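Annual report, structural modelling task.

Input specification for the magnesium ion complex:
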Amino acid sequence: MPKPSTQFVCQQCGRTSPVSFGRCPSCNAWGSMVEEPLEMPATSVPRHKGVPASHPVRLDEISGDAEERLNTPISEFARVLGGGVVPGSIVLVGGDPGIGKSTLLLQLAMEMTSSAYGSHPVLYVSGEESERQIKMRAVRLLRMENGEPLTELPKNLLLVTETNLDTIMEHIQQVKPELVIIDSIQTITLSEFSSSAGSVSQVRETASRLRELAKSSGIAVFVIGHVTKEGVIAGPRVLEHIVDTVLYLEGDRYQSYRLLRSVKNRFGATSEVGVFEMRDRGMVEVINPSEAFLAERLVNTPGSAIAVTMEGTRPLLVEIQGLTTRTNYGNPRRTANGLDINRVLLNAAVLTRRAGINLTEQDVFANVVGGLMVEEPAADLAMSVAIASSLRDMPVRADMVLIGEIGLSGELRWVSQMIPRLREASKLGFKAAVIPRRTSHAEALPSGIEIMEARSLQEALRLSLIDHESSHPKGK
Ligand code: TYD
Ligand code: MG
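The model returned the following structure:
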């Protein structure tokens, strides 16, 4: 029997198989197996007997206590990286096409090369855009003051349009940059591999070579990776093991806010979040995100409540909206935007059965303002109160935040990191917070914000909804 010359590779997780599956047995992705030529990369290095390539070193004799970092100008970016760019590290920046990855990294490159930040030489390799296109974008990104560009184009930033990894390596040898940006990994190919650009074997192998480069030379490498849900191009999962840090740029394409989230970081805390706004002059840091997310809020209108959600170590205040309308025919619909649909279903059921808010003949819409995705159960209470507020046509107290998870019996459950959440609400001028009944009083809750403990959803509704007749709820 002749040896097979092809294999099937899952484009999501990299599982290989001699036969195709409709659904990948490892990661359960549908239709993700693609036939690729079977190749044996020449990765085995000839061994020289007697001369080991590495030496074990005593832990206390290794120099350097803390990881050195390059001065990173964009502070929201530095925050997500855990304090700045680490030399010799490889960072994957993933996200949907068009979300702003190239823009953000070009901005980073331009700022790092400026003299104010140590003029680090940077090489920007693009497999997608021509040098001219990148220059046009760079001109657009220059900071303006009184209608004039503030700084001239950086001299230490070199651009090249190239997709062949060997050629890119040569450029790096020549230019000797401190930072290399590869835009994007799906366009880069190794000529000894016959599979097409963006296939799992190409992506995995190019990323490994780039990692070797980073580790051996001390150059920091940023790799952009497109993520599509269809699994047409190599998913980021095969890359996640190879790189030191994985950042995702997320956001609603039709909204201006973007979240840069770290999901893996060898040099800092994970799930740290940086918040940006996409403007016509690039990505602008949002220094006080809670304030930004609440900027357009209408107070004293029914169907709106404020939740405090944790994004990594950072508490964020977000407005959750609920709307109920009578179902015209058929089954009532539940629609979630920025919220987990299952939590909306659960909360609607609990409202109906446990809190006297009858939603059986109501269509329910629940929405997070600002294009943010809130999946935390801690937002249950705000979501439920917003929906109840819409049905009863009673607004929620404008200066109140609602924090808590709701159980099936309509009970409120404690959530983690309550103190930073309350502190953030207080900092933004909120005067009251409805939280679950405390079981332990070990930690003192922040002063400056009135704490209202509620055991059940029903109690929370009584505390938060303003009755038109009696003008104020109990407790104020
Ligand atoms: P881009 O960085 O090319 O996205 P990605 O590399 O993730 O595919 O961003 C593309 C979008 O950003 C495009 O729709 C235009 C918009 N944009 C702005 O709104 N302002 C800007 O200053 C720039 C450069 C782009
Ligand atoms: Mg791009």
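The radius of gyration is 26 Å.
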